[in-house]
């Protein structure tokens, strides 16, 4: 059991159930994600087509590169829609304050939208976040736009994509059909995020969130997931080789026709 943890860095990707692209340092992973974003937009702009992305706040290293390339190459985002994966909620079920350092809405404003040349930036209504008061909004937008071109993201320590936490009581098929919803964040995810975002202050971490569903992620024409942390060494192996199940949500991308995990050399190392 769990033989995939013993797969060496050299052999990672061999006979995997989903393609694994192994790169050097984290900067290469972020550049790969940013370049795919920019190249897709350029291609669609040239054909007069819209571009629709599902965007994470984790990983985030791609965004400064994306902004620099957009501004340098004068890439118009006017025909782009960015649908963010999720947002933290208060205990009362409202978006946390946009000014909070934990707010994904605030992050996108500070790091992306305020940095793009205003002449190139998409209108505010094309910057979409899941709404706890209208959980069907994201799916309506996706259907109106004709689908999502690429869902970008990372993988959580328990395999979650966006905040789609494991639900062992569901079949893989049932989990894959889940839509946008409000949920309680697992303690393991809150702990991991507290270490990365609040220097371990787990009690200060939000307990609730709004997340797009696996149905929205798996419905995208392409899926690109970036991994780069020490603990991603085990995560990337389980996602690429483990049994497809609701126990480790990232395994569901094994059934997707155009999914890829992009890893740096650190995350490619054997866990133990």
How is this structure best described in words?
With 272 residues, the chain is of the alpha/beta class. The chain has a single domain, classed as Rossmann fold (3-Layer(aba) Sandwich). Helices cover 32% and strands 15% of the residues. It has 9 helices and 10 strands. Strands 1-10-9-6-2-3-5 form a 7-stranded parallel β-sheet, with helices on both faces. A 3-stranded antiparallel β-sheet has the order 4-8-7, with no helix packed on it. The radius of gyration is 18 Å and the shape is globular. The mean pLDDT is 97. GO terms for molecular function: isomerase activity. This is Glucosamine-6-phosphate isomerase. Keywords: Isomerase. InterPro entries: GlcN6P_deaminase-like, Glucosamine6P_isomerase_CS, NagB/RpiA_transferase-like.
Task: Set out the fold topology.
Layout: E1 20-22, H1 26-46, E2 51-55, H2 62-73, E3 80-84, E4 86-89, H3 104-113, E5 127-128, H4 137-145, E6 150-153, H5 172-176, E7 181-184, H6 187-197, E8 208-211, H7 214-218, E9 222-227, H8 232-241, E10 259-263, H9 265-268
Parallel strand pairs: 1-10, 2-3, 2-6, 3-5, 6-9, 9-10
Antiparallel strand pairs: 4-8, 7-8
CATH class: Alpha Beta
Q: Taking Cα atoms only, what radius of gyration do you get, to the nearest Å?
A: 18 Å
> How many discrete domains?
1
- Give average pLDDT, whole number: 97
The CATH architecture category equals: 3-Layer(aba) Sandwich
Summarize the main sheet.
7 strands, parallel
Q: Percent helix among the residues?
A: 25-40%
Compute the separation of the termini in Å. 15 Å
CATH T-level fold name:
Rossmann fold
> What form results from the Cα inertia axes?
globular
> How many β-strand runs?
10
Discrete helix count = 9
Oligomer designation: single chain
